[in-house]
Design a protein that fits this description.
With about 550 residues, the protein is of the alpha/beta class. Among the domains are: about 5-90, Gyrase A, domain 2 (2-Layer Sandwich), CATH 3.30.1360; about 165-240, no CATH class; about 420-540, Isoleucyl-tRNA Synthetase, Domain 1 (Orthogonal Bundle), CATH 1.10.730.10. About 50% of the residues lie in helices and about 15% in strands. It is built from 20 helices and 15 strands. It has helices at about 5-15, 45-50, 55-65, 70, 90-105, 135-150, 165-185, 200-210, 220-240, 250-255, 260-270, 305-320, 335-345, 385-390, 395-400, 415, 425-440, 460-485, 490-505, 515-540, and strands at about 30, 40, 75-80, 85-90, 115-120, 155-160, 250, 275, 280-285, 295, 325-330, 355-360, 365, 370, 410. Strands 7-6-5-11-12 form a five-stranded parallel beta sheet. The protein has a four-stranded antiparallel beta sheet with strand order 1-2-4-3. The protein binds one RNA strand of 77 nucleotides through α2, α7, β9, β10 and α13.
Length: about 550
RNA sequence: GCGCCCAUAGCUCAAUCGGAUAGAGCGUCUGACUUCGGAUCAGAAGGUUGGGGGUUCGAGUCCCUCUGGGCGCACCA
């Protein structure tokens, strides 16, 4: 609801009277230069070819047929190659602001998702160490995507999938075992491919404390269970510190114990897409566009990773998620094709693009001008916890969200740590704190502001007009960000809008102004405060009343 | 060798479905505080959108190609 329905309908009517097809849906956009007007339409240019007329001439014809009152506009001008620029009638802004305030924390939300269930899987770190910065980016991204989907009417399930068995976990157990024995005075090396981080030594010490009967760490199974449990707890603490929660933790091992892996293999075989070669069982993924076939069951009888992956996604489908979104690092992009192909080969009615993937590029951490290598095994990587402790949750979230996921991210710890104006999150939060300050100092309850019976036509500064337009764009922005699964659009919008707020705040005083100015500006302040607060909440960032 | 992603101001990044004069922040330079917070604001400088070709009324955006970077290409996960 951005108040353009009337204008779009009127444009469509005018165009149809000139011979345009009955199903056209004219698009409106904000002109780059605000002096052109409030809205612009390229309708005449898109219709010029099919109707065989010159764009500007067609634009003129459309404008002549417009009923300004019905469209809610005060002017329509033709510009450039055939744009039509509109100015909105003043009361449209006023009504928009009142509706905004009445909606309050619901402003910007919609119901396009129609309460359909959607599963969003993210982080999904294996319990072999603390969460690193890459997981941090994924946590911020996934959490914001969930918030956007929820805000647009989807019923969201946040899911964390992890591998609690297999070779990696065995290495983990053996690494702890080696450390236990070292602490007992023995000279032993860590296993090949083992984990070298300090946290392994901590785990070993705690294992000794809790398992006095197994001083030499002979019980590998107990070591494994202990290490997985402790590292899961540690990851949960990291996530909690980051303010991220999950609804479902899904264990890979459960796919084996409940027979789903075998079931999946059987189904693939009976669907006729497999063959045996060199003692292994292969899936003909090339039938579905892969560049070569993939092994499902190795000659030693165990399955390759992608079989449980496929089985896992079958459970998502069978749990009723017609839509599933996976947020993953781009280093896993090769799984995209394989999981989808595996699901197709099952031939159980799962659509081709299932699941959807949001891939994010790698994070490079810079400290003191040098790259800090991220490696679980080296144990010298930067963890999510490190970042939160150093720069705070809000700044970490914002840093991870301010960029498109598909570009690489340089996280400069030194810059992020400096609590200065280099951190854009403070700029946004400051705008919110300033608005809150108006109400605090004026001893006015912001909840009492409704805009009803207030003449908003006195808000005639250009800064006020621009700010109002930005605030009324918010619902469209949210809808677009949710649809494209791009939270960075919200971050960019909030930064822009905060700029408009600072500008207005600097130019226009609120308190101690004549009554009609005071009342109108309080409405604008309240509306701005609500938009900032709603937007920040979607990104998981606090909106402080004072800083 | 093959596949995916990226390349925009000195640096880090935006740019809504292909729209008008490509925008912010930082950094640099010049300015603004008796008011509700100077963590702010105003102004200036800074660009052949990596190179080349194509598509069209119009290309940072789409197609081809080259260059440069990241990631992935095991009967590892």
């Amino acid at each position: 609801m951005d108040g353009t329905e009337l204008l779009r309908a009127e444009l469509a009517r005018a165009a149809q009277s000139l011979g345009a097809p009955s199903d056209i849906e004219p698009q409106l956009e904000r002109p780059r230069d605000p002096s052109f007007g409030d809205w612009a339409s390229n309708l005449a240019m898109t219709l010029a070819k099919p109707l065989g007329r010159k764009p500007r001439e067609l634009a003129q014809a459309i404008v002549e047929r417009l009923d300004y009152a019905r469209a809610g506009i005060s002017s329509a001008e033709i510009a450039g190659p055939g744009f039509i620029n509109f100015r909105v009638a003043g009361d449209v802004f006023a009504e928009g602001l009142r509706a905004l305030i009445a909606a309050a924390d619901q402003y910007g939300r919609s119901n396009v998702g129609q309460a359909c269930p959607v599963n969003v899987e993210f982080v999904s770190a294996n319990p072999t160490g603390p969460l690193h910065v890459g997981h941090g980016r994924q946590a911020a991204l996934g959490d914001a995507i969930c918030a956007l989907l929820a805000a647009t009417g989807w019923r969201v399930t946040r899911e964390f999938y992890y591998n609690d068995g297999g070779v990696q976990i065995l290495n983990l157990a053996l690494s702890v075992q080696a450390r236990v024995r070292q602490l007992g005075g023995q000279t032993v090396d860590l296993p090949e491919g083992g984990y070298h981080g300090e946290y392994i030594r901590d785990l070993a010490q705690r294992y000794i404390d809790e398992h006095s009967s197994d001083a030499n760490a002979e019980d590998v199974d107990a070591l494994r269970r202990f290490a997985v449990r402790e590292l899961r707890k540690e990851q949960d603490r990291d996530l909690q510190a980051f303010g991220v929660h999950f609804d479902v933790y899904f264990l890979e091992s459960s796919l084996y114990t409940d027979g789903r892996v075998d079931q999946t293999v059987d189904r693939l075989i009976s669907a006729g897409h497999t063959y045996e070669k060199d003692g292994a069982l292969w899936l003909k993924t090339t039938d579905f566009g892969d560049d070569k076939d993939r092994v499902m069951r190795k000659s030693d009888g165990t399955y390759t990773y992608f079989v449980p992956d496929v089985a896992y996604h079958v459970t998502k489908w069978e749990r009723g998620f017609k839509r599933a979104i996976n947020v993953q690092g781009a280093d896993h992009h090769s799984t995209v094709t394989r999981v989808r192909v595996g699901l197709q080969a099952l031939d159980i009615g799962i659509p081709e693009g299932y699941p959807e993937y949001v891939l994010h590029q790698m994070v490079t951490v810079m400290r003191s001008g040098e790259e800090v290598k991220i490696s679980k095994r080296a144990g010298s990587y930067v963890t999510v916890r490190d970042l939160i402790d150093e720069v705070g949750r809000d700044a970490v979230r914002y840093f991870f969200l301010m960029r498109k996921g598909d570009s690489q991210l340089v996280f400069d710890v030194d810059v992020a740590r400096s609590q200065s104006d280099e951190n854009p999150v403070y700029y946004i939060q400051m705008a919110h704190a300033r608005l809150s300050g108006i109400f605090r100092v004026g001893e006015i309850d912001p909840e009492s502001i409704t805009g009803v019976d207030v003449d908003l036509s006195v808000l005639e500064l250009s800064e006020e007009q621009e700010l109002m337009k930005a605030l009324l764009d918010y619902p469209t922005l949210i809808a677009g960000a949710a649809q494209s699964l791009e939270p960075h659009r919200v971050a960019t919008y909030l930064h822009d809008t905060a700029g408009k707020i600072h500008l207005w705040y600097h130019k226009a005083h609120v308190l101690n102004e004549p009554d009609e100015i005071l009342r109108a500006r309080l409405v604008l302040a309240r509306a701005s405060q609500l938009v900032l607060r709603n937007g920040l909440e979607l990104l998981g960032i606090t909106a402080p009343e004072r800083m």
